[in-house]
Specification:
It is a single chain. The strands form two sheets. Strands 3-2-1-4-5-6 form a six-stranded parallel β-sheet, sandwiched between helices. By secondary structure, the protein is an alpha/beta fold. The relative contact order is 0.10. The longest helix has 16 residues, at about 25-40. Helices cover about 40% and strands about 20% of the residues. It folds into two domains: about 5-205, inorganic pyrophosphatase (n-terminal core), CATH 3.90.1640.10; about 210-335, Diaminopimelate Epimerase, Chain A, domain 1. The chain has helices spanning about 5-10, 25-40, 75-85, 100-110, 140-150, 155-170, 180-190, 195-205, 210-220, 240-245, 255-260, 290-295, 315-325, 330-335; strands spanning about 15-20, 45-50, 70, 85-90, 110-115, 130, 225, 230-235, 265-275, 280-285, 300, 305-310. Guanosine-5'-monophosphate binds near residues 119 and 306. Manganese (II) ion binds near residues 92, 137 and 138.
């Protein structure tokens, strides 16, 4: 495994660099990737961000978005870039299965691999690891890496804007327990470096379409079930409803948090029929390990308070399976 000094030496000369991040990138995935992108560009490297899939429209304003290559839209170019890279930076994930078909291309590339992440249980594919599960966001890790490289002079407005976005979105707008005073100090530095905090909030959060809000109303009114005996609420959304409201990538983001915001609720689950798979989002409060249910029963994982998984069974069977395993966790949920 390479150390920081060796990485610094590697980056002293111009390199071909690919940055990639997880399937269906969220604000932190794109914030950390594009933040690192602008930083490495300013050092004079040839850099490309390649995403395994598309990402929500409310992230499309981010500086660097037009240059991002989506593997599902440009597989040949993505594969060529990965094959020809000197370095591949993997951000906000630590197992290659999280980037779909891109994973094996990255594994087979002769490029050196760096992993910058804050998730549990890394697979160990990388040559350089910058990893801390207490970090609130991969974007926080990128900031810390830049500081450790003693290259903070290269934190320009674009770097600051992207890193601010990553930290803001992954910390639930600075409310999750991972938002330490150190995070607030980093945020202050990013504002000083030019991140327009108020404007970024607007660009991310005030982007609802009329459709999305009506969909949200329908979902909360008709698709949410509260189970007081388990301090749990779940929401299930069938494909027809997604079609009826013309739901696109990003529209379902954050819906699970409404269920978690009910007084007394410790576990919230959102199950969406995505056609080929049923995708599950878990959110919890306090010590309850949402990632354990996701890992044990739904082929997923994540953080203690935010995890995800999938099921090949029907929507109804998936919900039933969840309801069957809940009693195993009743003790923890009603502590
Ligand atoms: P979301 O519910 O927003 O899709 O995912 C929440 C968190 O759960 C993500 O930040 C990620 O850490 C984790 N996660 C989501 N889906 C998966 C999955 O399929 N496998 C693993 N290991 N983690 C996931
Ligand atoms: Mn993250």
């Amino acid at each position: 495994m390479m150390n920081l000094i060796e990485l610094r030496e590697e980056l002293a000369e111009s390199k071909k660099i690919v940055i990639t991040t997880h399937h269906k990138p969220d604000g932190d995935a794109m914030g950390s990737s594009l933040g690192l992108y602008h930083f490495l560009c300013s050092l004079g490297h040839e850099v490309h961000v390649v995403t395994p899939t598309d990402y929500p429209y409310f992230l499309h304003w981010m500086p660097g978005h037009p240059e991002v290559i989506d593997f599902t839209k440009d597989a040949v170019k993505s594969a060529d870039l990965v094959a020809e890279a000197d370095w591949i930076f993997c951000l906000d994930f630590n197992t290659l299965s999280r980037i779909n078909e891109l994973g094996e291309l990255v594994r087979n590339s002769s490029a050196k691999k760096a992993m910058i992440d804050h998730h549990l249980e890394p697979e160990g594919f990388e040559d350089f690891r910058y990893w801390d599960t207490t970090a609130c966001a991969a974007a926080e890790m990128v900031y810390r890496l830049i500081v450790e490289l003693e290259l903070t002079d290269h934190i320009n407005v674009d770097v600051a804007t992207c890193l601010y976005t990553g930290i803001m979105t992954d910390s639930g707008s600075f409310r999750f327990p991972s938002t330490t005073s150190k995070v607030h100090r980093i945020i202050a530095d990013l504002i000083d470096a030019g991140a327009n905090n108020s404007h970024i909030h607007e660009l991310i959060y005030d982007t609802n379409s009329e459709n999305r809000l009506k969909f949200l109303g329908r979902v909360l009114g008709e698709r949410m079930t509260v189970l007081p005996e388990f301090n749990t609420a779940y929401i299930s959304i069938e494909q027809d409803l997604l079609k009826q409201y013309h739901i696109v990538t990003g529209d379902t983001e954050g819906i699970v948090n409404y269920a978690l915001s009910i007084h007394g609720i410790k576990l919230a689950v959102l199950v969406i029929d995505r056609g080929e798979l049923r995708k599950l989002s878990f959110r919890s409060k306090g010590e309850f390990p949402a990632n354990e249910i996701a890992k044990k029963y739904f082929e997923g994982g994540g953080h203690r308070n935010a995890a995800g998984g999938a099921s090949k069974e029907s929507l109804e069977s998936t919900i039933n399976k969840f309801l069957e395993v809940l009693p195993e966790y009743q003790y923890l949920l009603t502590l």
